[in-house]
Amino acid sequence: MERREHLTLTFHSPEVPKIKGNRKYQRPTLPAKKHPSASMSSQRQQQLMDQAHIYIRTLCGSLCSFSLLTLIAMSPLNWVQFLVIKNGLELYAGLWTLCNHELCWSHTPKPPYYLQYSRAFFLISVFTILIGLGWLFSSWLPSRGSMTTNLDLKVSMLSFISATCLLLCLNLFVAQVHWHTRDAMESDLLWTYYLNWCSDIFYMFAGIISLLNYLTSRSPARDENVTVIPTERSRLGVGPVTTVSPAKDEGPRSEMESLSVREKNLPKAGL
């Protein structure tokens, strides 16, 4: 009778530290996702993301509208105060207003045409932001909500263009003031001029927000139809991990059954 070798299988069970005196101590488990968004469907998450994008567009539209109304309200007012050095006479003028004095400028274009260039950039800034606001308002309509593609990117570009044109307008106006006063008068910019700078900052801020909204909207959404195959790993990195597909599992089973039948027949053959 042949002597069979006994195989010994050992299973590794990592030791878990116990707390002295605490009988209710349990083994540590992996953290579970307890955030509300973990159990939320992808459709619901996409709906919330769309609502967030709409709120951000509303914020950008509000900033641009406020800046535009500020520019329109400040345009007929005086932006600068002139003080005549000889007699101390005070004169006031603006981008579109005149002081009706021989020392002030007139509507007649004169080189270096700083005033005319400033007015041109002011008009470009107003018309550009009007186009952007028109696209925003049309996107809020139910029938035309999805007609404008890349709306956030277009609004961002128009906001930056409008802010740049307004910046050039304000700088050219200051150049006109310095060139016109020279040695005969002193100039002092009024609060209405500085309020236009606030509008320019709001334009830039709206453009940055709209650009970030465009970048976040381009991120791909999670699809529930995509199947993910989980990967198996040994606990604490001890021992190899074997993955056997269901199709290939039938072959080893048949081989094990044949081996067990042979082992049962060996004692009978020895006898």
From TrEMBL:
The compartments listed are: Membrane
List the keywords (alphabetical): Membrane, Transmembrane, Transmembrane helix
Top-level taxon in the UniProt lineage: Eukaryota
Q: Output compositional bias ranges, type Basic and acidic residues.
A: 247-271
Listed GO cellular component terms? plasma membrane
Q: Compositional bias of type Basic residues: which residue ranges? A: 20-36
Primary localization: membrane
Task: List the signal peptide residues.
Answer: none
Region feature (Disordered):
19-41, 239-271
Query: What InterPro entries does the entry give?
Result: PMP-22/EMP/MP20-like
Q: Where are the transmembrane segments?
A: 54-74, 120-141, 153-174, 194-215
State the membrane topology. Multi-pass membrane protein
- For this entry, the protein name equals Transmembrane protein 202
